[in-house]
Amino acid sequence: MKILIVDDEEISLTSVQRLLKWRGIRDVDICDNGQEAIRKIRERDYDIVLLDLLMPEMDGMQVLEAAKPFKPYTEFIILTAVDDVPATVRAIRLGAYDYLVKPVDNELLFLTIERAYERKGLLKGLSAARREGGGDIPAAFAGIITQCPLMKSLLAYAQVMARSGNPVLITGESGTGKELMARGIHQAGPAPAGPFIAVNVCAIPTTMFETQFFGHVRGAFTGAEGSYRGFFEQANGGTLFLDEIGELPFGLQAKLLRVLEEKSFTPLGGSKTLKVDVRVISATNMDLDKACQEGRFRLDLLYRLKSAHVHIPPLQEREGDIALLSAHFLREANSRHGKEISGFSPEAMDVLIRREYRGNVRELAQVVENAVLLGEGGVILPHNLGKQPTRQSLFARHLCSLKENDETQVAYVLMNTGGDRRQIADILGITVRQLQRKLAQMRNDPYWREVMGESLSRDKGEGNGDDRLAC
What we know:
It is built from 20 helices and 14 strands. By secondary structure, the chain is α/β, with parallel strands linked by helices.
């Protein structure tokens, strides 16, 4: 990993450089001004640039704006003593990976660098795959049905990370297919023939943690009439999948961390230490970064689990996959229930596509299953799908909770509609002229100009009767 640190304060330069070298990153350059930074960035392919925002002559934002177009795969992390929301927004828009406020916790800084490095590898690998005409789903992930470019890119990244054999953290909403992804990573890894042991962490009682994970010998406690091989021993030579890892009680996290670090443990009641070769894949729908900040999850354990990070998008963000998955689940349900339903009516498919899936793929499968059971004709009709809120109705419900016609509400409507002025005015319960005045006020506000950007600008066709905003 090649890193450049840019800061006009010598103490910041040297302290961060020492920290990175202490963590094993040897290739670290430093410079104390923006002009030199641009020259170095253009001359050398850095993986990460740690960039101070406030510098004389040329600040970090100017460096980012000048250098990023020449090095699209270099990730920039802004470091500054000023917590400025508009500056954060602008930095992200210019291509920065993240924005950290000094003083930065050492572990947080290192985690951010690791994530940025993963993202760089993903983007560069995907770019190469496109040039080579790739796009097929890797064989190890054949069980994941998708035609979504985002998902195909994710699977390509997961395959690359799987080969390392390092721990992987999978995140995503309930029902997105985290265990299916974990099994694919196991199959694409260095030991596909080894065991795959799946454990739901929240189903293990706290008092049974040690015996379930590390096993016990005969006579270790009352009722232990025989020995028991724990999850780690069962997974030796393969993969241990820890689902719902965020639910692991804080007091037990240190015990799990120790095994991950030492790759050994002693069964309960035993005297012999067992060495194991186990890859750990964990999954959660919890925000573990937030849990660390709140003291509910150990940062050192998160670092150990998150050598690579795979985030599965919700079903609603998987372009084209609702129709594809619906057809797949229809074929399966037909087979199970002896039905011969040929497909979905156009109206029924429209309902499926517009529907809100809080349970994601799992919920879609259940909806199609129920529709097959209820269907009596040759195709699924809308009334077979039940009555559930669509995205539009959920949007309207959320809108009602906002303060009436304040700037936040206007911004929310503007960003969640096509930009039609008449439609926006109708939703807000005001006239088009009143909406125009509100937007004019927001354009004059530096904060809203920075946050909304082009979303507040008028479409060129406005003077010709076009009632749309550039959005």
